[in-house]
# Entry
Amino acid sequence: MSTELPEPASKIELKPGVGGGGEIPSFDITLRVRRFLPEATADAYWEDFKLTMYGTDRVLDALHKVKWEHDGSLSFRRSCAHGVCGSDAMRINGRNRLACKTLLKDLDTSKPITVEAIKGLPLEKDLIVDMEPFFQSYREIMPFLISKGHEPTKERYQSAEDHAKFDDTTKCILCAACTSSCPVFWTDGQYFGPAAIVNAHRFIFDSRDDAGDMRLEILNDKEGVWRCRTTFNCSEACPRGIQVTKAIAEVKQAILARTV
Amino acid sequence: MSVSIPAPRSQRIDPKYKRGPKSHGSFEKLAWLFMRLSGVVLIVLIFGHLFTNLMVGEGISGISFGFVAGKWAALVWRVWDLVLLWLAMLHGANGVRTIINDYAEKHATRAWLKGILYVATIFIIVLGSLVIFTFDPCVTGSELAQCL
Ligand code: HEM
Ligand code: SF4
Ligand code: FES
# Structure
């Protein structure tokens, strides 16, 4: 009684054994996590977890495995798990990375993989830091469009060339990987930091914005752009590939060009 | 045993991170510019200095009291060395000032280190300038030709 269904046009014949989950290589890793449980101990300490992971897994998957299957007290932030929200910046093998964008297979799995909270911000628990000082600097540079004159009836027109001037800095997801990789920020947390400058750059060089001078004045502070020592840690850390040090240099030049 | 931990953001922002009032003027900007401009001039001054002292004529073995006296008989070398002294000292001192700002964590440490730095810098600039301006080749016992 069954009616013969026509074969789908896209059907591909697979050899037996191909197409299952089996061929994803698995390997054993040691995840060395910097734990800090303020209710239990005064000091932070390292804890090792031995895990079997797969070639498609990221550091975030390893953290999930620990939290869901080994130790539910492990605390870390994550939301999107796909490099969009900026919640899970951490120090992985000594470099600031997003846990959700770092594949385990790209790291040296023969040695323990170290995972720590980002540096320079107050540690609250395990991999969670207080981001408030970071966002305070972000707020201070006024990260919103300020435009004088009449509001246009349609869109605010901008040429492709004008947009290209700040396209790079629009990509920021406020993960704090840059600011917390900066040795000048580590010392006393007074420096505005790369992320605030990147987001100021995004409006300073926007032809539709009229408050560039105000932002330049804010960053002309003794804790502003002049504290940058061009160590390039920020550019190296940025998960969005933003040329952070270049953006800072452009802001320095804009301050010089307007007010020498 | 229960430990009470303050609510994480009860004080909103850790006081350590509160920035002081906005700085007035553009001292840091001028200092930044000065480092680059003096650096460019220093390349010429330093390598000119090294070349004339170490390469020309008898080279390094020719350096003596008489060599310096001979050089400073010409006004151009006095001016050269004076500018070199001032630029290198101010450039170096400002560089060390930046390093202190970058590495000292406590306000008091920072103030002390910078105080010592400024005193040392002024001392060396004044002493060096004094030598260049008041240099007399004919000190007692000098065997230079023009002093005999
Ligand atoms: C050859 C000529 C020189 C050039 C082109 C040069 C250039 C520079 C520049 C551009 C900076 C700023 C770096 C920054 O802001 O990150 C700097 C810093 C510095 N310079 Fe020079 N300089 C020269 C000679 C000297 C001399 C003779 C001294 C010592 C008296 C000196 C001591 C310093 C120090 C201590 C710093 C701070 C280092 C730092 O900020 O990391 N420099 N130099
Ligand atoms: S500039 Fe890059 S590293 Fe810095 S906060 Fe933005 S996305 Fe993160
Ligand atoms: S969890 Fe959203 S960026 Fe990694």
Notes: The CA atoms of residues 22 and 28 of chain B lie 12 Å apart. Chain B has a mean pLDDT of 89. Chain B touches chain A at residues 3, 5, 8-9, 12-14, 16-17, 19, 22-23, 26-29, 31-33, 98, 101-105 (CB under 8 Å).
